[in-house]
Amino acid sequence: MINDYLEPRNAEGMPKLTDTTMSMAFLLNTKSGVRNCAIALTEAATPEVKAVLRTQLDNAINMHEEISNLMIEKGWLHPINLEKQFQMDMESSRTASQIASLDLFPGDTSRLGTFATPKI
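The structure assignment produced for this chain is given below.
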């Protein structure tokens, strides 16, 4: 990984990395939604509430399937090939560690003269 992250040409691969990360977060949140709807459904007291929760659960399951299929199609998720998924997860963890080690907040953060600023 190149440490000059402020240079736009060094951002190669970042859109794919961002898409992968955002889709995985979306998938995990959808999975939590499925679980929460299922729990709420088991605790619902009235038939009307149960019907609404069943609809929500069905929608959440369908959303999870759509996201999973998209990720599999794009090559971002390999639920059957565990070795390949493990290698992707290891690469992701290495990249996350490299990003964490970047000096994102340098000591000199003065932007004076960089932008047009009004005189006060």
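Interim note for the steering committee: The radius of gyration is 22 Å. Residues 14-43 form the longest helix (30 residues).
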